[in-house]
Recover the amino acids of this structure.
């Protein structure tokens, strides 16, 4: 159970986040803990720190969690959420500097093989314009 | 259509990929995930002369963008190399089990 690194997808748009998660599920399978969040409480575009923390909790794995984000606020709010993690989870959640959809599929594929959190992030970040 | 040879202690097999979409995203993920289940070092090339890439790297496998009717070459080195090559060739033969 949860022997693989988890993946969290954070987008300003719940549709983008849900769709990205669908792609990971369909392409990689169910052996990776996966959660997504997106949108603000009013139903508009945005991200929220409590939602990100809750998503990290849903995708939690003792091996760690890799977070994929889209733009600006998604990144800063995810950084804030990571800083607010309880002490026993500190250092086991990493933000990936990668495109959200492609990065999530790459990270999910790497995670499904039982790779470490650092390797999962490296694979997601390997996919960058030359 | 498969071919095999042992070269320099490595096992080598090739297979014609007939899958309609070629080595696109979903087939790449399946191939990489399967390769990662073996301990052997496994390389993939679109030509017997290389260049060889790490078949366990999803980014590199997807970047090959190999189209339908490409011959995929696999080489493996390690204690489960034979099993790895059989499994990978089998996956390509079955059109990556698409439709499941």
């Amino acid at each position: 159970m949860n022997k693989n690194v988890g993946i969290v997808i954070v987008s300003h748009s719940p549709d983008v986040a849900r769709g990205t998660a669908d792609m990971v599920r369909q392409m990689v399978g169910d052996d990776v803990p996966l959660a997504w969040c997106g949108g603000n409480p009013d139903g508009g575009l945005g991200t929220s720190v409590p939602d990100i923390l809750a998503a990290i909790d849903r995708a939690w794995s003792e091996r760690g969690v890799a977070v994929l984000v889209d733009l600006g606020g998604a990144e800063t709010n995810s950084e804030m959420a990571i800083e607010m993690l309880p002490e026993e989870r500190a250092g086991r959640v990493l933000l990936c500097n990668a495109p959200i959809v492609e990065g999530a599929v790459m990270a999910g594929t790497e995670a499904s093989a039982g790779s470490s959190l650092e390797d999962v992030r490296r694979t997601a970040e390997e996919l960058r314009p030359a | 259509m498969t071919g095999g040879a042992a070269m320099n202690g490595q096992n080598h097999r090739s297979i014609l990929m007939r899958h309609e979409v070629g080595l696109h995203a979903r087939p790449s993920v399946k191939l990489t995930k399967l390769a990662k289940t073996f301990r052997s070092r496994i390389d993939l090339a679109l030509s017997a002369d290389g260049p060889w890439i790490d078949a366990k790297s999803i980014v590199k496998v997807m970047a090959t963008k190999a189209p339908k009717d490409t011959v995929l070459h696999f080489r493996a080195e390690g204690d489960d190399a034979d099993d790895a090559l059989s499994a990978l060739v089998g996956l390509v033969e079955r059109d990556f089990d698409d439709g499941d």
